[in-house]
Amino acid sequence: MTAPHRDFLNIREFSRDELHALFALAERMRSGAYTARPLTGKALAMIFMKSSTRTRVSFEVGAAQLGGTAHFLSPRDVQLGRGEPVPDTARVLARYVQGIMIRTFAHADIELLAETADVPVINGLTDLSHPCQILADVLTIRQHLSSPDQAPVAWIGDGNNMANSWIEAAALLGFPLRLACPEGYDPDPAFLAFASNAGADVQLLRDPNEAVRGARVVTTDVWASMGQEEEQAARVAAFADFQVDDAMMQRASADAIFLHCLPAHRGEEVAASVIDGPQSRVWDEAENRLHIQKAIMAALMGGEPLS
Ligand code: CP
Ligand code: NVA
Hints:
The chain has helices at 16-31, 54-65, 86-96, 107-116, 131-144, 161-173, 189-197, 208-212, 232-238, 246-251, 272-275, 282-300, and strands spanning 43-48, 69-73, 99-103, 121-123, 153-156, 177-180, 202-205, 217-220, 257-260. It has 307 residues and is α/β, with parallel strands linked by helices.
């Protein structure tokens, strides 16, 4: 019997109103107006089957700031890495902790974890999606652009986990999204179908210059994600025309900002002059991971209402 709780595997698990409440809560956390410690006496298990800098540290620090503790579990240390089944791990962890954050490969693994764990499960990135990151990105847009709710976003490059979560965010929050991906590197069809069924203004294009025209947010990601390292050479060739450089930024709106989830490869998906230039907001974007994840933990583990 599963105790009532909510998971955060994808953005669509929140309604539009709840997402706005989460952003407002994160903004109160960022400004220092929020001083409650709803995780007091509570613990978060953090399973990392892939590397991480931002996700690990922001969840760890965020849990501490909310009064709780966070416990880093890597496959080298925990039995999951030696083949202990996901459901067994989930059931056991749920006896010790009040929430589980996991970064892993197959999205099916996080679904299985969520089905069997009797506590909230939070997606810290799978091959399919990266919802915490995209909520941090939208929080950054709210921080830096006037009338952010309608700001057109251009996604340039791989139709990967980031692209999929951008599609969901556009469908739920209502901003226009243009994705430019080379053929063979499209986003997940189920995410595109979700947007289309929602009547979202989401277009998949092949030409990055068309996608950035009029955009107020230009964003990209590495050409080879974690787990795709052996495809690096083929991807460098496929994405050759997809570098976000100064010429591309000039086709966007004059007030456009540049976002990148990091880590970045300067000279591949983004020119150093763009990521280190005046339109870049990547450091605020990284900081916003802390604020939005605190809001998510406060809501899912700490009983903070989202209405
Ligand atoms: N953007 C992001 O998720 O970074 P890490 O891989 O460092 O966690
Ligand atoms: N798409 C990248 C994001 C890293 C934060 C990856 O999955 O490796």
